Task: structure prediction
Amino acid sequence: MIARLTGAASRGLLVAFLVAAPSLILPTVPTETAQVVAFVAIACMILTTIEYGSSSPCLFEFRDAGPFNRIRYGAGLLTVVLVSLVARHDIAPTGLTAFITSIGHVAGGLLDFPYSPLRIALPAVERPETFHAARSSLGVAILVFGGFFAVFAAELHRGRWPSSGMFNVWVNLPTFDPTRGGDVVARLDRDGKFNVVLGCILPLLFPLILGTEGGALGAQPQAMVWTVAFWIGLPFSLFMRGLAMQKIASMIEIRRSDSTAPRAGLVAL
Result:
C-alpha cells in the first residue's frame, strides 16, 4: 500500500514537472500564464497520483504494462525541454540553444517543401523568423519521438513487451470492454489498425486545426512549445497504442491455442 502510494506520488510530481518545464526554461513568461501553468500542473499531479494510487483503474491506459507509459513520458518530457530551448534561442541564445536549434533546422528541412503541413500551417512569407523557429522545433520533436518509437518497436519485435509477461486487460485498458461487441481479438486488432491509420492522418490534419495563419505556432513561445509537442506527440501515442493493441490480440490468440499450460505472454481478461 505504502509503496503504491509513494510510486503514485512520484509519478504525479514527474507529470507536474513536465507541465511546468517550458515555464522554467523560457526566460520571459507572463504572470497570468505562469499561474495557469501552475494550476494545470497541480491538477495533473493530483489526477496522476489518484489514478496510480488506486487499486481500480479509471482513465490511464497501460499503467501496469511497462515500459509503455515510461516511453511516452520520456519522449514527451525530452521534446518539451528541447523545443523550449529552441524557443529560448531567439530570446536568450546560448551555445546549447544554438546547437539544438541547428540540429532541428537540419531535421526540419525535410518538412520544408511546397504544400507540406508546415508550409500550410505557417507560410514562410508571413514571418520568416517564426517559420524557422517552428521548423527547427518540429525537426527536434520528430527526432525525439522517432527515436523513442524505434525503442518501443524494438521491444515489441523482441517480445519484451509487456515486460512482466502478463497483461490484464481490465487494468491496462479500463475503457475497453472485452465482453461486448463480438470477438475480443478481432476488436483489438481492428482498434489497433484504426489507431495506426489515425496516427498517419493526424499530422496532415493538424494544419487545418491551426489554420493557414499559423495559429499557436505564431503566438508566444510557450504556446509554440505545446503546439509542436501535441502535433508530433499525439500521432506518436496513437501509433504506440495501435501496435500495443495488435500485440495484445496476438497474445490472446497464443493463449487460446495453448490453454492447457501456463506460458509467457498470458493475457487476463
Summary: Residues 221-257 form the longest helix (37 residues).
